[in-house]
Write a structure and sequence with these properties.
By secondary structure, this protein is an alpha/beta fold. It is built from nine helices and 13 strands. α8 links the parallel β12 and β13 (300-305).
């Protein structure tokens, strides 16, 4: 099942008015006498449905719009911080996300660097709160110019200590296509920072992501294979093509979103850092790559995205992925 929510849709379906600030309102116990649930309240209710719990603060009428059965994807068309603030503590197993880079893309509002970092501190703090004790965050960001200090500073280096998460490892995603440079080496990588909430308790399914491309798979030592028959550890440099655009060279998974990362990257992260049936969240869902990859990997997906046009792209991709899954199931 795939569902997309926004504040207007919630008001229309529940016949209520939008609350401008849900955090300042008391719990809704009756549609007739109390303030009405907003996107934040709906996010909390949906998440509770994902983990088979229900909030007593929501009315039966609203809960009837939210299935308590196993779902594949929920997407909220709204502000990430508002959605996060409506989510219960320790309810997410894994977050995979790539927030706006603050470099002037069409989907972002340029801010002074310190203001941008403060905004990141807010949502990172909320994300830490909603992450389970054994949960993780994989964070992807590009580069930014820092006046007087650097031309292309990796944003993740400015953010690694801005949240309570524990930085476990940096993974370099290397790709072939990209912009060309005449005054420096052409950039061909981005960083993924792997954060965990508890460095002694986290999920790592190495066997699920082993690389079968082993140079000497039958090499033995003392009569035993030196390499795992399932493949080798893929290491911390991942060579995976970007989602390219352009006539005659666009990737098959290309959408109109200008900063789309490939499903292959997200699938590896999800398989390694979560288990089947767990909840994977992307607060900056964009074209929905994290959600699509989550459903492909048998996880339950939840995301938020501010722009309605990107929500529409993500919904189409999710429906196409669901249809493909059903077609393949016919031949199982």
């Amino acid at each position: 099942m795939i569902r997309v929510y926004d504040n207007q849709a919630v008001a229309k379906r529940a016949n209520v008015k939008k609350i401008d600030n849900p955090l300042s309102q008391p719990d809704a116990t009756s549609f007739d006498t109390q303030p009405k649930p907003t996107l934040a309240a709906l996010a909390a209710a949906v998440l509770n449905g994902l983990i088979s719990l229900f909030s007593s603060s929501l009315t039966k009428e609203l809960m009837n719009t939210i299935s308590s059965t196993m779902i594949e994807a929920r997407l909220f068309c709204g502000d990430a911080i508002e959605v996060l603030r409506g989510m219960p503590d320790e309810s997410i197993d894994l977050t995979v996300t790539s927030p706006p880079y603050n470099i002037g893309k069409e989907y972002e509002q340029n801010r002074p660097l310190e203001e941008y970092l403060e905004w990141c501190r807010i949502w990172l703090g909320e994300l830490f709160r909603v992450t389970k004790p054994s949960g993780a965050l994989w964070l992807n960001l590009g580069y930014i110019a820092v006046e007087g200090r650097g031309r292309a500073v990796p944003l993740v280096y400015l953010l690694w200590n801005q949240s309570p998460f524990y930085l476990l490892q940096e993974v370099v995603w290397h790709y072939g296509a990209g912009v060309a440079s005449r005054k420096s080496f052409s950039p061909r990588n981005e960083k993924w920072l792997w954060f965990v909430k508890n460095p002694s308790q986290y999920t790592f399914n190495l066997d699920a992501v082993r690389d079968p491309n082993v140079k000497y798979p039958n090499q033995k030592k003392n009569g035993k294979l030196k390499c795992n028959p399932q493949g080798k550890n893929p290491g911390d440099v991942w060579i995976i093509p970007k989602v390219t655009s352009g006539s005659g060279r666009a990737s098959r998974e290309r959408t109109p979103h200008p900063a789309q990362f490939p499903l292959a990257v997200v699938r590896r992260i999800i398989l390694a850092s979560s288990n089947p049936g767990e909840v994977v969240f992307d607060p900056f869902a964009g074209s929905g790559s994290s959600l699509v990859a989550s459903t492909q990997c048998g996880r339950r997906a939840m995301g938020s995205e501010l722009r309605s046009d990107y929500c529409a792209i993500a919904e189409r991709r999710l429906r196409a992925a669901r249809l493909r899954h059903e077609e393949l199931a016919l031949f199982d």
